[in-house]
Specification:
Length: 353
């Protein structure tokens, strides 16, 4: 009995000692020796004796600054961007509609133009101004030989004005055949003296002729030579046939009289730059009715067709025994633009490429 009581008292004493021991606080473990510390950073890593299964370590951040709060929002963009230009390739995208703006004033076709059979090489150089496509001025000069019962060699200087009625004929429509082509030439050369002159023959004087030609029959003759040949007859020829009328006067420098001349007949033209005509009429101071044949044959022209060299011949025959008038000469025909453009002076040398 005593032994049992002693044993029970020992167990109670032992249990009280264990309970006292468990209530005492546990000593804290020292901090880790490999934690890095600096003067500018107070962050440190410490072990807090937390079980490894939940959290192994805790990082304490002591100097983290809070992000500043934005109070002033940037202003909205007010400028408009330029629209992107549409390239040519974008107009072919399916579903894309291309908008084409028409001009406020549509283009107008020219009112004056030459027929398709007449090219620029067949016409002289035009003037400047309104309706300039139908009006031209050329200078002509060269050597002339005249025989009116004598033989005289002289010079020939003239200015010739051309007026082609193509534009007027187009506007006239079916009545266009009334409108002629016209030319006017004033010349300083040797002229025939009147038959009643005590010293018959020829002398220097001033002549004027105005020609009106109606080209009613037209056709084109093709050639085998290149179209840019310097020979006018080696190119396609635009031929025209119709009546012609020429009027004017002759005036000798040593006389005061002006002798009127009037002739009418038929003219064959080719490329507008040459012709052969037969006319009949009279010239005051020359006896009787006169028959006259005049031919102007261009044998060379520049590549642009503006500068030409001519052979000119005239035969004037009267109805009585008075001597005939024979003229022949070599002439250069050139537009005004050639004289004022040194770059075109090379066209004055014939048969040079």
């Amino acid at each position: 009995m005593l032994s049992r009581t002693a044993t029970l008292a020992g167990l109670i004493a032992y249990a009280a000692g264990c309970a006292k021991k468990n209530h005492e606080p546990l000593p804290s473990e020292p901090l880790a020796t490999n934690a890095a510390a600096s003067a500018n950073n107070t962050n440190a890593a410490a072990d807090t004796n937390i079980p490894a299964a939940s959290v192994s370590s805790v990082v304490l951040a002591t100097n983290v600054s809070a992000a500043p709060e934005i109070t002033n929002l940037p202003p909205a963009e007010t400028t408009l961007k330029a629209p992107e230009t549409t390239t040519l390739a974008e107009t072919n995208v399916p579903g894309h509609t291309a908008v084409v703006e028409m001009p406020s004033q549509p283009p107008v076709a020219p009112t004056n133009f030459y027929p398709a059979t007449i090219t620029s090489s067949l016409t002289p150089s035009p003037l400047v101004g309104e309706n300039a496509g139908n009006f031209f001025v050329h200078f002509r000069g060269g050597y002339e030989h005249i025989n009116h019962g004598d033989n005289n060699d002289s010079y020939w200087l003239s200015a010739k004005f051309y007026a082609y009625g193509d534009g007027l004929r187009e506007r006239a429509g079916k009545n266009g055949w009334f409108i002629p082509d016209a030319s006017a030439e004033i010349t300083s050369s040797d002229l025939a003296k009147p038959d009643n002159n005590p010293h018959p023959g020829s002398d220097a004087g001033l002549g004027f002729r105005a020609d009106f030609t109606w080209s009613w029959l037209r056709w084109t003759a093709l050639a085998c030579a290149p179209t840019n040949s310097g020979c006018p007859f080696c190119q396609p020829l635009a031929l025209a046939l119709g009546p012609t009328v020429n009027v004017g006067f002759d005036h000798l420098y040593d006389e005061s009289d002006y002798r009127l001349a009037r002739y009418a007949g038929l003219r064959l033209t080719f490329n507008r730059s040459g012709f052969v005509e037969y006319t009949a009429g009279e010239t005051e101071g020359l006896d009787g009715t006169r028959q006259q044949i005049v031919a102007e044959i261009p044998f060379y022209q520049s590549r642009d067709g503006e500068v030409r060299y001519y052979l000119r011949g005239l035969w004037n025959h009267g109805s009585n025994s008075k001597p005939d008038i024979l003229e022949g000469g070599l002439f250069l025909d050139l537009p005004v633009s050639t004289l004022i453009s040194p770059g075109k002076w090379g066209d004055l040398v014939p048969f040079v490429k």
